[in-house]
Specification:
Blueprint: H1 2-15, E1 18-19, E2 22-23, E3 27-30, E4 33-39, E5 45-51, E6 54-62, E7 69-73, E8 89-95, E9 98-104, E10 110-115, H2 122-134, E11 136-139, E12 145-148, E13 152-155, E14 158-168, E15 171-179, E16 186-192, E17 196-204, E18 210-221, H3 246-258, H4 267-274, H5 288-291, H6 294-307
Antiparallel strand pairs: 1-2, 3-4, 4-5, 5-6, 6-7, 7-8, 8-9, 9-10, 11-12, 11-18, 12-13, 13-14, 14-15, 15-16, 16-17, 17-18
Helix pairs in contact: 3-6
């Protein structure tokens, strides 16, 4: 009988190690970072991680009367720095096979998303998303067609080169090392643009920092597919889009809708999408939003929040 009571108590203890679907020990990815959740005895949840030897931590407190919603703050039991201090509330989403924690600011803009769906480490997730974003068919200044795949570059349909993504402390740097193509041999910083990619040749110092050498190559997008079609497929919680101009973000956000034949009306959008071979607007937008996947809806929110950042264009990389 005594053993049965202990067993039942253990079951209750294990059951208490979660709060509204978030379990102790669960891993949550954002960018290249992996946070670990810990449900506290008062039902608050501590998320912690380590970056370059620095401890990061924040705490979620359940919002009374609201399921799966929390307020965000510092953790009084941790010396860790709260990297999401601009966020004031969080919402846990468990839909369409995704387990996500969406972080909003006081103006209800979606600033970040932590993803517990992935089973591999943050660095691999970030590198995989980055390769997805630069993959596609381009024309270089010689007029040659290059197809960038995952770790392989094809020229006229034949594998001509390989590339290696260079990371720093697990973070995507945007720098790749290309081997096999004479004119692109070496290390290049890749910057996304509205029309394709700009590659800057770089050199690396003894501290691992990269400096542009002055040489650059422009690759022009020539796919019959949307330039930012990846925004319809992958969750943009790596925030690589934040390096693009606001004008480009506007195109990216509307492109997610245009893939669903959304009928744009603003003159600049009519001009851009009217020149896209894949775009076929519908007569009415009544049902468009109902067709969007969870990822598409959240990506639109993330991009829109960045567009509303008044200082955004002061720090972008897009030329």
């Amino acid at each position: 009988m005594k053993h049965s009571v202990l067993f039942i108590l253990c079951l209750f203890t294990l059951a208490g190690m979660q709060a509204q679907g978030i379990r102790t020990g669960s891993k949550w990815n954002v960018g290249s970072m992996d946070y670990t959740a810990k449900v506290n005895s008062d039902r608050t949840i501590t998320f912690s991680a380590t970056a370059e030897g620095e401890e990061l931590a924040f705490r979620l407190t359940p919002t009374p009367g609201k399921t799966d919603e929390y307020t965000i703050g510092t953790d009084p039991n941790s010396d860790g720095f709260n990297p999401f201090e601009k966020s004031t509330r969080a919402k846990f989403i468990n839909q369409q096979g995704w387990r996500l924690l969406c972080l909003y600011d006081a103006n209800n803009y979606l600033l970040n998303i932590l993803d517990a769906t992935q089973s591999i480490n943050g660095e691999k997730v970030a590198v995989g998303k980055w390769m997805e974003q630069i993959s596609g068919k381009y024309i270089d200044h010689y007029g040659d067609t290059l197809q960038i795949g995952h770790e392989t570059i094809y020229e006229r349909g034949v594998a001509r080169a390989t590339y290696e993504n260079i990371t720093f402390n697990g973070c995507v740097t945007g720098v790749v090392k290309i081997s096999g193509l004479t004119n692109l041999e070496g290390k290049w910083e890749i910057v996304q643009t509205l029309n394709g990619l700009t590659l800057y040749q770089v050199e690396q110092d003894e501290y691992g920092m990269f400096t542009r050498k002055g040489e650059k190559e422009t690759l022009t997008w020539v796919n019959s597919e949307p330039r930012f079609g990846y925004a319809n497929r992958i969750l943009l919680n790596d925030r690589e889009f934040s390096k693009l101009k606001k004008s480009t973000l506007r195109i990216m956000r509307n492109s997610i809708l245009a893939v669903h034949s959304y009928m744009v009306s603003s003159p600049d959008l009519v001009e851009y999408f009217g020149n896209q071979p894949w775009f076929s607007p519908r007569p009415s937008n009544d049902d468009v939003y109902d067709e969007l996947t969870l990822v598409e809806r959240l990506n639109i929110e993330l991009i829109k929040a960045e567009e509303n950042n008044p200082n955004h264009d002061d720090y972008i990389k897009e030329p």
